[in-house]
Amino acid sequence: MVEKQYTISASEGLHARPTSLLVGSLAPFSSDITLIYNDKSVNMKSILGVMSLGVASGATITVKAEGADENEAIAKIDEVMKSEGLAG
Amino acid sequence: MEQRITGIAASGGIAIAKAFRLEHPDLETEQVTVADAEAESARLDRAIADARGELETIRKHASEQLSQSEAEIFSAHLLVLDDPELIGPIKEKIRSKQVNAEHALKQTADGFVALFESMDNEYMKERAADVRDVTKRILAHLLGVTLQSPAMIREQTIIIAEDLTPSDTVQLNPEYIQGFVTDIGGRTSHSAILARTLEIPAVVGSRSAMAQVENGVTVIVDGTAGEVIISPSDATLKAYQEKRRLYAEEQAQLTRLVHEPTRSKDGHQVELAGNIGSPSDVAKILENGGEGIGLFRTEFLYMGRDQFPTEDEQYEAYKSVLEQMKGRPTIVRTLDIGGDKELPYLNLPEEANPFLGIRAIRLCLQEEDMFRVQLRALLRASVHGHLKIMFPMIATLDEFRRAKAVFLDEKEKLEQSGVPVSDRIELGMMVEIPSAALMADQFAKEVDFFSIGTNDLIQYTMAADRMNEQLSYLYQPFSPAVLRLIKMVIDAAHREGKHAGMCGEMAGDEAAIPVLLGMGLDEFSMSASSILKARAKIAGLSKSEMEAKIDHILSLSSGEEVRSYVEQSL
Fold this sequence. Notes:
Chain A is α+β, with helices and mostly antiparallel strands. Chain A has three helices and four strands, in the order βαββαβα. Chain A has a single domain, classed as HPr-like (Histidine-containing Protein, Chain: A).
């Protein structure tokens, strides 16, 4: 299992357009990917799940990936977080 | 017989056309037990695939006809179609309970709708509409009914609907859709925002349009007044055709003023600027011919989050505004929090009189570290444009000096560490407390400019809460007491060769503009939608004529007298 923390710097938090791209980019991965915020965890491949958390700007989130391609999944998340300006 | 309904004015202008009821088909579902859960699940998959095909077409249409951001709504809808947390539970219900796909879908989706609607964030509440929109589309395919599509309309119509889904609104073609009326929704709902972008007159939240308007009857939509007239009489129809003509003429005239300077009949030039709350508001100001930013409220950076914005985040926001303004004067107001605006993470103690308490510059001088972060971000951004900084709620010279000292200290530190900083940053203050207006002559020697904040200046001068409707007789911009203070501030600035601006609502008030022009105000800052009207107004006024009337105006004894004198003398 791989685990990583991010601090969301996008001023609109994790609920605008970039979130769709983030969630959409995870579909090809077979690993289970979980996003944890405020003691709640959701399936990160679910747009409704991720949006339902209402992650605000400045919040720290934890992402966990578990499965055959867990490292690649986290690398993808890193890439999208950076390219979409969601987290530094 | 003519009937009238009043709703919320969502998008200005007048539309007259035949009504087209956009009815969403009955998608009522019943719970049915199915024998073959496997086959039912496959039926769901087919409906999803069909819905996906449709959504892809709509997304393509949106990106070609509208903007990328409109198209992105449908990218999100497509993700919802594939959402494992939506589709998974539906299939699970079909399998374990042997129920039909319609019922399983409805039950699961309703859970998400309720979840989003219960959130206290406007943006998240709107997401409930997205879930409904997507669910409806799948449901229609399951039931084999066709959803009415506004894109198919090929004659001039006014759409009457209970609500317009995001996928309805992006299909509105302004060539045919003259206007729309919905029963629900508010000024910030998706359909209202899009109507303004497309410049289609619209009234939302009418509550009873669907109940009262039949297909094919003539309807007038007055999107400026928020009124809908059903089956108008000949006289009403004529009156509104004339109104529509005037509106179009006025719009065309205003558009011609976008790139014109702001000049009175007798050649006196002033600056018309815009008030903004975030970098994304700049475009609207420029489209409407704003010559500068007279007030950038920086609170948005601090609100709706759970910790302070970092220096870099703030720097990016200020830089973005300055770059978009391309060297035009840009006044940024430092944090104005407290009073009615709270920050949960700041843990401010509750005060008995928050409007007379620790807010704005008082708070910034108390929480100096927080203030320094903002000033550093501003200083770093200053090289990207023409930055002017102003401090809110200054009551005494000492406060201004202290704020300025912190600013100079941060400036020096940055320069010493080799960070480039503009050397032409101007430092000014808001004049919104009577004590500052009364001492304006002394302030004028130390500040680079004044910006009069009339909303607070009136409230503090009259000791009347502007939110209290029973005190609205006291909250009068035309009160001679307020006007005398404004005049003192402008005169004091001019004696020291400084600039006096105004960024309260009064600056964009067409009735107040003649008086302000006559008193010699240099810069008027207002919301984007008021700029062109103000420019047209000023073009029709003579500064010297108004100036000659000021002494008399200031000798009048009530706001009513001032108002009627100004109206009569124009």
